[in-house]
Structure formats: structure tokens, C-alpha cells
Amino acid sequence: MTVENPTGPLGGHLDDDDYPAYTMGRAAEMLGTTQGFLRAIGEARLITPLRSEGGHRRYSRYQLRIAARARELVDQGTPIEAACRIIILEDQLEEAQRINAEYRRAAESADTTAAT
């Protein structure tokens, strides 16, 4: 069943990974970390939380997954700045691999078309 005009406090954002649904306190609680940790990874520009009308930080599920990865690295002894850089590089590598795979598919498709 598809809902065209969802109602309620989230207004259809329940499946939106980028919707800033979590306050800083709730995000820290969910991650089992401190609000200071979230501030630190924000200062390192790993994630940039959106701000509510009152100026409070709000985090999305996607941002919480990134923060969880940072916490995992920090818990293993990686300095927070290095953990943030590692995650950024991992993300860049994943994007480069995705683009490379697209180019390969396009090249294979062009080869197949040219051969017929």
C-alpha cells in the first residue's frame, strides 16, 4: 500500500536515511558515545548535522552509520582525526570503484554493440 500524502510528526520521512530525525543527545545515546564525540567528528568535517530552527544539531540515520564507523575506529585506538580521514578515504574509494564499474559496463556494452 502506497501512501501519497503521509501525515504524522515525520510526514513520510520514516524511510529517508538523510532526514535529520535524531537530536544530539539521542544520537549519542544510540551510538553509546558522548555528545563531545559527535561535536569532534563534526569539527573534523566527517559529518555536518543539520540545525533545527532553534539551532540544535539534528542527525540522520546515514550520519549515525558514519559516526558508528568512526567510533569503531576510535575504540580500536585510532586517533579521532585519523579515523575521520580513514572514513573519508574509504568513501572516496567506494565512489571511485562505483564509477569505474559504470565505465566498464559502458565499455562492455559499446564493445558488444560494435561487434554486432
TrEMBL record:
SMART domains associated with the record: HTH_MERR
Keywords: Coiled coil
Pfam families: MerR_1
Domain of life: Bacteria
Domain HTH merR-type: 21-89
Stored PROSITE patterns: HTH_MERR_2
Coiled coil: 86-113
UniProt name for this protein: Helix-turn-helix domain-containing protein
